[in-house]
């Protein structure tokens, strides 16, 4: 007799099925019945872990953001010159976004369909990530390592606008690996911050 599935296994299967179906059909054209059938679980099992499709959509994005935030905090606290830390973080967010491109694409396409309370929560979590990222730029500006004639907020918005656009052009079959793209993005960011 096989061991019962763990909570994380069932959740992972549900999230994987939802991600695939949302990517293929769209959030609004995917039913709970399709998700549970694709995941091989019952509706009762789904509702044990997720109250609704909105919960699935929220978790698809939130799990990526939680991991990116954990990595940002570890890299930011690693010590060393701020330019080196910022380069590592900028490259990492590109690589991790590419690794979860379907999740990010689905979320940005469907954010407007998310329950307003959840939408507000996600925006607040993203804002915290961006503020921590901005804090490193401001640190470099204070120490003179980065140019200070451009507002840090504009720099952050410019950089993440490019990151969020990855889904429109990046293809794993292309010439550049995710790491190469991440390093190019980070190089461009750091080059733009170099004092004139």
Features:
single chain, 196 residues, mainly alpha, Arc Repressor Mutant, subunit A, Tetracycline Repressor, domain 2, 2 domains, 10 helices, 0% strand, elongated, transcription cis-regulatory region binding, DNA-binding, DNA-bd_HTH_TetR-type_CS, transcription regulation
Structural account:
The chain is mainly α. The protein folds into two domains: 1-50, Orthogonal Bundle (Arc Repressor Mutant, subunit A), CATH 1.10.10.60; 52-193, Tetracycline Repressor, domain 2, CATH 1.10.357. The chain is built from ten helices and no strands. Helix 1 (7-25) packs across helix 6 (101-110). The longest helix has 28 residues, at 116-143. The chain is elongated. The termini are far apart. The model has no long low-confidence stretch (mean pLDDT 91).
């Amino acid at each position: 007799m096989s061991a019962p599935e763990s909570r994380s296994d069932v959740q992972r299967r549900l999230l994987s099925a939802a991600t695939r179906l949302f990517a293929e059909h769209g959030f609004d054209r995917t039913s709970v019945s399709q998700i549970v059938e694709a995941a091989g679980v019952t509706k009762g099992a789904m509702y044990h872990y997720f109250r609704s499709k909105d919960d699935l959509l929220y978790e698809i994005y939130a799990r990526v953001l939680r991991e990116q935030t954990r990595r940002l905090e570890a890299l930011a606290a690693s010590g060393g010159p701020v330019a080196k830390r910022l380069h590592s973080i900028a490259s990492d967010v590109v690589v991790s976004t590419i690794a979860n491109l379907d999740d990010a694409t689905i979320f940005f396409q469907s954010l407007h369909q998310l329950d307003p309370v959840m939408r507000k929560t996600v925006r607040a979590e993203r804002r915290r990530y961006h503020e921590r990222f901005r804090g490193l730029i401001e640190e470099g500006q204070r120490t003179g390592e980065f140019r200070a004639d451009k507002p840090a907020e504009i720099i952050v918005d410019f950089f993440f606008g490019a990151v969020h656009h990855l889904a429109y052009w990046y293809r794993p079959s292309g010439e550049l690996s995710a790491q190469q793209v991440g390093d190019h993005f980070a190089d461009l960011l750091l080059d733009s911050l170099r004092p004139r």
